[in-house]
Amino acid sequence: MAPTGSPNSPLPPGSRRRRLVLTPAQKGALHAWFQHNLYPGIATRERLARELHIPESRIQVWFQNQRTRQLRQSRSGSGNSQGEGPPRRHQQPPEGRRKRTSISPSETSILLQAFEKNRFPSIATREHLARLTGLPEPRIQVWFQNRRARHPDQSRSGPANAWVANPE
DNA sequence: AGACTAACGTAATCAATGT
DNA sequence: ACATTGATTACGTTAGTCT
């Protein structure tokens, strides 16, 4: 039983974006920047994206993963209690964030419909929605993350339902 | 087969914007 | 002041690459 197949597939195949393979040159450049700043702002990330020919969202994820890697290595490596940088937040003036994306009511309506059908859209679906709305796919991914966090599956036999009772 | 790591998830929080 | 919601963080998990 349970031949080659997994007992259950939490995620349909092809739901993730294709994993990209970084060249040694790209990794080198990223590591170099990481040394200078663990928290690059949108301007730096966009510049790196242009120079390395990597989507900005992938740069952002690389820095996220890299911070975790370094912290993990710092800890388990040895009884290092000081010297290396503890999770010191940006000591330099923090670089600017991405400008808040404004999502129009009609765009929200499109995303909302998709959300009701599937709270975990595949990369193909997210890209489709990006075309429909004209919004960048990474913004759509974040939109779904925020939506899931703030609108838990209400079809659960939970509390007597106190959500938006619509006053008036 | 196991190490490494990009992609992705949640939870908490920061922060812009509108009322 | 406060509610809403987009953006970012830490950290754990999933799954593709490489040895």
Automatic annotation (TrEMBL):
List where the protein spans the membrane: none
Q: Where is the composition biased (Low complexity)?
A: 66-85
Give the residue ranges for region: Disordered.
65-107
Q: Which residues bind DNA?
A: 15-74, 96-155
Residue span(s) of domain Homeobox: 13-73, 94-154
Q: Name one GO molecular function term.
A: RNA polymerase II transcription regulatory region sequence-specific DNA binding
The record's Gene Ontology cellular component field reads:
nucleus
The main place the protein resides is nucleus
Q: Which UniProt keywords apply?
A: DNA-binding, Homeobox, Nucleus
Where in the cell does this protein reside? Nucleus
Q: Which domain of life is it from?
A: Eukaryota
- Tell me the protein's name: Double homeobox protein 4
What species was this sequence derived from? Answer: Ursus maritimus (Polar bear)
Q: Which gene encodes it?
A: DUX4
